[in-house]
Each structure stands twice: as C-alpha cells, then as structure tokens.
Amino acid sequence: LADDLRCIGCGAQIQTTEPDEIGYTPMSALKKGFENEEILCKRCFRLRHYNEIQPVNLTDDDFRRLLDQISGTDSLVVYVMDVFDFSGSLIPGLHRFVGDNPILLVGNKIDVLPRSLRRSKIKDWMRQQANIAGLRPDEIALTSGKNGDDVPALLDLIERYRKGRDVYVVGVTNVGKSTLINQIIKEVTGERQDVITTSRFPGTTLDRIEIPLDEQSAIIDTPGIIHQDQMAHYLTAKDLKYVSPQKELKPRTYQLNAGQTIFAGALARFDYMQGDKGGFTAYFENNLMLHRTKLEKADAFYQQHAGELLAPPEADHLDDLPPLQRHEFKTTQKTDIVIDGLGWLTVPANAIVAAWAPKGVSVLTRKAMI
Ligand code: GDP
Questions:
Q1: CA-based Rg of the chain, rounded to a whole angstrom?
Q2: What positions does the domain CP-type G occupy (predicted)?
Q3: Residue 202's pLDDT is what?
Q4: 308: buried, middle or exposed (CB in 10 Å: 19+, 13-18, 0-12)?
Q5: Which of 2, 85, 208, 228 is the most exposed place for a label (fewest CB within 10 A)?
Q6: Is 55 in the pocket of ligand 1 (CB under 6 A)?
Q7: How far out from the chain centre does Cα 86 lie?
C-alpha cells in the first residue's frame, strides 16, 4: 500500500495486515473506500457509523506522551484494571503521570469471580495492590463491561468525583476497556448517534475519543498500552479462549498429599512439597484441564505431554511459551497462590508449595479470599 494512504478520520497510515494496530482496514473495506473516495480505518469507521470504539495498541513513547498530557490537566482519572490479572493491568509509573488528579480505580471483569467471593474483599485486595504500586485511589468500583449492569452505578460515581471536570479513562490492553467504554457510550448517548467527537493527541496519530457529559466536559478514552507480561501475549487467540474465564469460575477441589502435583494445561504447575493431607481448591477457567500426577514424575510428564494432554498451548505454539519458572511459598494461613491472568489455587495453612508459571508472568499470594 502507498505510504501516503491515510485514514481521513485519524490520519493513521492505512494497513491491512495487523488488525490490532492503528490504521487497520480490511482489504474488502479498502476497496469500498476507494469507490466512495472515503478511506477510514476500521476503528474510525466503527466510531463514525456505530458510535463504537475499537481497541488500538500504542508504542511506549506515544503512551508516555499521552499520560504526560493528563498530568497537565485538572481531571478525574478512571483507571480500568482486570480483577483477574492485577499485575498484568499495571501501568508502570502511572502515579507520576496522574499528578494531583483524583483516581477512580475500576476492577473490571467482575462477572468471572465466584459469587461467594465478597465484593468488599476484592476491593480491599485491590487497594492493597494499588498502594504497593504507589497509587492512592480515591474510590474503587467493580464492573463487568460485558454484562453492563453496573455501568449506571459507575457513571454515578464518576459524576460524584469529577466535580465538573473532564474524565480520562486509561488502561492497558485486554482489561476490557473498549467493551466498558462501549457500554458507557450506550448509557450516555442513548439513541443519539452524533455525540461522539474526536480530537488528536499532540505528537501522535491517535485520536482521543470524547463522549460529552455536559457543555464543558467529556469522558476521554485513551488508547491502551501493551503490557508484555500478560498471559494473553503468550497464547494464540484460540488458546486464550481456554484460559480467559467467560463465566463465573467454578471451584474444583482436590485432596492432596505432599508429593503430588497439579498441572493447569501446560501453563502452570503446583507441587505440594510438604504438609499434611489437605484440600486444595483451584479457580481456573472452567474448561481448562487440570491434571494430577506424582511430583517425582511431574518433570517427565510435562516433557512428554505438554502441547497434547497438557494444553493449552497446543503443540505447534509450545515454542512461543517462555519456560515455566518455579516460585516456592510457605504458608502460615489459608492462602491463594495467584497466577496473574490465569487463576489461583487456594492452599491450606502450614504447607510448602512450589508454583510454576511462564517466565514473566506474575505469581503472587494473598490471604485466601474464600
Ligand atoms: P481492551 O483491550 O482493554 O480494550 O479490551 P477488550 O474490550 O477488547 O476486551 C478484551 C477481552 O476481554 C475480550 O476477549 C473480551 O471479550 C473480554 N472482556 C471484556 N470485558 C469483559 C468483562 O466484563 N467480563 C469478561 N468476562 N470478559 C470481558
């Protein structure tokens, strides 16, 4: 394609090969665009015709510039995270960019957590994790952009905290920000199709999408940044489906003796090193196969079965997966060992457990939430 072929909406260079990058236009749409002498990237097309935003990815430099912008404004920052992938949702250095602006922390994808998990506990845990990351959220909200039920409540909260100011919505990719914004657009615009405006972020080819709230202020959606250490980046779209919970997680409980191992596909492994016989409860996508073996045979079992019996990933993508790395934990109370973006195992007190996860993916512990 010619270098100077640009989207008339956002000015991005048109390309037809990378659906998740800026300027993407499917070949079929490009042909139509030539006929109508109006070439729009898919993102701008959908925005114009459906008032719907599409996720785009940004380079780190563009993202820094964008965050820098926010620090110079007097606004409310709405920071969207995935409750199932806390570390993978972190924006490094966000606290520096937010400046003195208030933060509303949104834990999204709440629909996948078991109903027996109390909402107040999730919020407490999110606050702790946010504090560790240097953030002091003014308020924490829980949402599911997917079912959209809590969007009106979120908008009430936004209204309370923004005090007439603009609202910037930030988040890394895959946290469900686009889905949530689309729900917000529906809620705010109702039947009106013409309310969304775009304006350019200086120094980038990216539009910011503005959803007007009143005469003076708007909700401004910002593009997501890629967080490399997300489980999502190591898996194909198909494999990811087996891993990302679509529905409420159903706990699976195992009575384990020391010397036993549980595999979660080929993506994670838990070795019960030491402790009394006890109940271990796994919270992973309901279709993800869990396998129990003897610890002494676990290495050989993995060698032999990864990519087949132990999947995802499937055999042809196994090479893309970083090697599993071992993290050993000693518990003094009932503890969740969380593999970010994948799920968690609740282990009893007074146990020594080794958890294995792809190198780069965070493994953390917390007091058992259920
Ligand atoms: P973005 O990259 O942050 O804009 O995220 P998307 O909105 O594109 O969503 C990323 C993935 O998460 C998609 O597979 C969505 O189906 C899924 N997703 C988005 N919102 C939710 C939610 O509220 N609940 C659940 N379970 N999945 C969601």
A1: 22
A2: 64-228
A3: 60
A4: exposed
A5: 2
A6: yes
A7: 8
CA 31–ligand 1 middle distance (angstroms): 30
Helix/strand/coil for 310? strand
Q: Is 81 in a helix, a strand, or coil?
A: strand
Instruction: Kindly report, residue by residue over 300-314, the tens digit of the pLDDT.
Output: 999 999 999 999 999
Q: For residues 21-47, give the mean pLDDT.
A: 83
Mean pLDDT of 90-100: 83
- What 8-state DSSP symbol labels residue 6? B
147 C-alpha to center of ligand 1: Å? 11
- C-alpha 365/C-alpha 279 separation (Å) is 17
Nearest CA to ligand 1 atom 27: 109
Distances from the Cα of 94 to the Cα of 37, 79, 225, angstroms: 41, 9, 12
Q: Which residue minimizes the CA distance to atom 25 of ligand 1?
A: 109
Instruction: Tell me the C-alpha distance between 174 and 230, whole Å.
Output: 9
Put simply, whether the predicted model's pTM sits higher than 0.80 gets the answer yes
- DSSP result, 261-306: EEEETTTEEEEEEES-SEEEEEEE-TTS-EEEEEHHHHHHHHHHHB
User: Where does the pLDDT of residue 22 fall: very low under 50, low under 70, confident under 90, or very high at 90 and above?
Assistant: confident
The pLDDT mean for the chain works out to: 88
Å from CA of 65 to ligand 1 middle = 25
pLDDT(234) > 90: no
Within the chain, all domains assigned CATH 3.40.50.300 are found at 57-227
Q: How far is CA 314 from CA 242, 310, 320, 343, in A?
A: 11, 8, 10, 19
Smallest Cα–Cα separation from 262: which of 180, 355, 131?
A: 355
Q: What is the mean pLDDT of residues 85-107?
A: 88
Q: Which residue has the higher pLDDT, 211 or 306?
A: 306
ipTM passes above 0.95: yes
> What are the DSSP calls for 144-180, one per residue?
-TTT-TTHHHHHHHHHHHHTT-EEEEE-BTTSSHHHH
Nearest of 292, 55, 266 to residue 174 by alpha carbon: 55
Residue nearest to atom 24 of ligand 1 (CA): 109
pLDDT tens-place string over residues 176-187: 888 898 899 888
CATH architecture, domain 57-227:
3-Layer(aba) Sandwich (3.40)
